[in-house]
Amino acid sequence: MEAVADLAGLEETRVRFLGRKAALTTLLRSIPELPAADRPNVGRFGNLVKRELEAALEARQAVLEAGELVDALEHDRLDVTLPGRTLPLGHLHLITSTRREIEDIFVSMGYSVAEGPEIETDYYNFEALNHPADHPARSLHDTFFVSDDILLRTHTSPVQVRVMEKKRPPVYVIAPGKAYRRDSDATHTPMFHQVEGLVVDEGVTLADLKGTLEVFARAMFGSDRQIRLRPHFFPFTEPSVEVDVSCMICDGVGCRLCKRSGWLEILGAGMVDPNVFAFVGYDSEKYTGFAFGMGIERIAMLKHGVTDLRLFYENDLRFVRQF
Amino acid sequence: MKAPLSWLSEHVVIGLPVDELASRLALTGTEVERVAAVGVSSEGDVLKWFVVGKVLACEKHPDADKLSVCTVDVGEDQSRTIVCGAPNVRAGQTVAVSLPGAVLPNGMTIAKAKLRGVTSSGMILSEAEVGFEAKSPGIMVLPDEWEAGEPLGDRLELAESVLEVEVTPNRPDCLSIRGLAREIAAVTDETFCEETEYLYPVSSRQAADDISVEVWDPDLCPRYAARVITGVTVAESPPWLKARITHAGMRPVNNVVDVTNYVMWSVGQPLHAFDLAMVEGARVIARRAQAGETIVTLDDTKRVLTEDMLVIADAVKPSVIAGIMGSVDSEVTDSTTNLLLEAANFHGPSIMRTSGALGLRSESSTRFEKGLDRNLIPLALDMACAMLTEICGGVVSEGTVDVLAAETYPSKLTLRPHRVEQILGAIVPTAEIETILGRLGCEVDECPGDDACLLVTVPTWRADLEREIDLVEEIARIHGLGQLPSTLPPRTEGRGGLTQDQLAVRRIADALVGAGLDEVVTYSFIEPGWMGHLRLEPADPRSEPIPLTNPLSQDQSVMRTMLLPGLLAATRRNVAVREERVHLFETGNTFHARESGLPNEHRRLGVALYGPWEAESWTAKASPPDYYLCKGLLERVFALLGVQVAFEVNREGFLHPGRSAAITVNGVAAGWLGEVHPLVSRAFDISGHVVAAEIDLEVVLPAARGVTLFEDLLTHPVLEQDVALVVAEDVPATAVVGAVRAAGGELLRDVEVFDVYTGRQVAEGSKSLALRLTYRSPDRTLSENEVNQLRDTMLAELKTTIGATIRA
Ligand SMILES: [Zn+2]
Known about the structure:
heterodimer, A: BirA Bifunctional Protein, domain 2, 7-stranded mixed β-sheet, two-stranded antiparallel ribbon, B: alpha+beta, 6-stranded antiparallel β-sheet, binds zinc ion
């Protein structure tokens, strides 16, 4: 049996010993013709031999089959280095993924996310944000108009006013969305995205704004980032500040990205002006608050090293699919 | 605002290196955009090659008509020979000389050179050659008191550093050298000094005899003051003045105009000089323009005025658009001898409106529009009179004709030091508060009867300080924001998070990204012609998008009513760069006009699929996207939201009439999908199939499932049966499924079409739909027999409702 090399040989062996014409089969078939006294012994012995033969064949078959499987698998080979089947993976636009990242940081600090209309009234976009008609600050915004007092919002700040009109303090909210300004060059697109933030509560201070933005900057740009506040002017906050983050390329030493200053401007902010509270009926002696606004594209450019703002709106998939 | 450092230094000691000064200013609220080195390089000792020279002799060059050979004393033992090409060089002049080794601002190095056979060892300079003006007609002539060999840099600002400062709109006081110097003094703790007394020759003539001033519209002109100067000579300005004017970013014109500009730069008060002889009737009238009145401004443009614009007129005609720009006819010319000098105060918002309406801005209007201190006027007039009489000659008539609507007095504000702490979250000691406010020119006293409160008197040049909070800001910025601690708000109640809708929008985007689509962000304003490509009915409101009144360009001039055109444009862009698989989606608002008030905004999801779903590879053949692929994507979105939708046959002009569907949610229109009509694709320059869809999320999201309740699907298993129904070919699958559901009874839980057949085995005009029926009872396990009975009853009913027969 050990000499049988393959399953075909095994079948030959089975036919030879157990087939219809095999000696054993012939013997067992002839038992009724034997003398009665011999029949039990011949029968018992014959069947014993048959069972042992069968067991030996089965055992040999198992060994041979295992060997043949190994051979078959050995020969059934793929080029495993060929590419996999294409299961296309899509991509969020970098603006969306950055927006989500910003939202998630503030949501983790307990903020809600509010949204508002992109076509706004003069009242919400300017008036209630302490930009009275003919105020020079309005000239900082190149506004797209739909009619005399309806316009494309120039910032997401109107959502501040809409939130405060609906809700008493405490307010912890961010407002992401599109904004529009009539400006188009290498560093401006006529549509862009902002995230506005607003906190109003008892005892909120400029130091709280600083701490909050520090948490944000570190979550967004790395745990060893520093921030600094520079005084600035916005009509709807007072004091107003611009906020810089220490340059992530040179770590504050000075490089081309940060124009040798070691700092990169990331957003504008300030304490909500009492005039804005007056528009929404908040008591500015009891409540104080801060607001901030950042450009999503700017944050994305700094974080990912995108050098051309216009790429965001060309929708070339060679750009979209990088992120 | 460009501020030459030497000019600032006349008013404040600048003890810091200039880049440290810039950073100190930035950290206290005055952004320095850059510090520009202008003029001659100040590196090393190269300035020593620029000296004062005396032209001792000046001969014609023997071999060149236009050249002179000068003998120039530059304070050395021997005089030098210098060849000069300027027409105005004369013996006896005091001139500026650059010696060999000097490098001019344009990069030219002066070397000993032979000019037509004569060796020249130096160069006599013009203003332009050292950057004092753009173009000079001849050499610069210096005062005779300057001595030969004096370093020129001691006398003139050859190497200037110019701070380019971005002034925020609340600080018009910093649009002047003195204002900036005062700010520098405050933030660097130095002393500010300025000259306020000026001496000049005054004649016995009274200004009021020569001129009358009438302010007809004091609301637009709160103050108008005029002085008269007689006997001036209009000429080029001296080199130092040209240098200042040029370094400040203006253009030298003549001595009179340059002086008025210089004074404006110095004190922040714009001035206007009229040729007195041109003032008809010797009357100056500040009045609103008559509608349609015209004026040709100095930039040679005819301006048509309206009744809300203020002009300065004489008895006959308007000669200045007040505070913005003068006319060509009242301009000071070389023949002018008598001047009317105006210093006025105009209503800021009116100047801003007028300048906006005319599209005309000037240095003057950018100052007036922010609101100026009317108390600047006497100082500005005095300074101008002193400079004009010194530089242009002449004498000042006695008196100022001054029409003043009301005096402006310093305002008084109360400041509670605890409010400073309440806003900043840091304690600034009261003594420091007093020091800071003092440095800013405020006077600080105790409030009468309240020693927890300060009474602050604000100088009139800081009209932006109107409220306590404005003082808090000043204290914050001078105290230093870097000193603030970093804390977090003392949140008292509530929690945050995303809303269900916001989460749903994220999940939709994630599902589509997971399915292989790429997200795009297209502009909300589009080319109006794009809507025309869509074959919409004229009455379709989508064909009338909201226009912008002042678009940047025609191709971004109307607000989109659909996402499709933007997606098709994005598709075309990618096809154009040979991208084979362009599978896009976008979520964004569309805008729909209403009778009044704000337009409706709908957040929509748009999808556009172009090119094979799977790229051609060794494992798969490329297969073009089709209707069913797009529908499958949408079904996936609806399934994850738990929204029941219906797809119905529909006709949108921009879709293939036989391969498109309307989507409804509870009977409300919620979007469409289908193959884009070939004519539409062609209009967008796309050859090949595009399948697209748009879903109105304002309809879909509210229908999304809330909390899912558990249902026991395990205890009693389902029983499935397949059945093939033959129906007329034009019966839509949804109708068959609907009829089956209606007839199936409550134990029929699900009906799914898994095959469609038309062909020889069914009758002509018929099709066979293979359905998988899923039966399940919540309280018992169904038997085959029971289900067979249910099915047979159902089939009998279907025969009458939709004429369906069992396929043999
Ligand atoms: Zn850097």
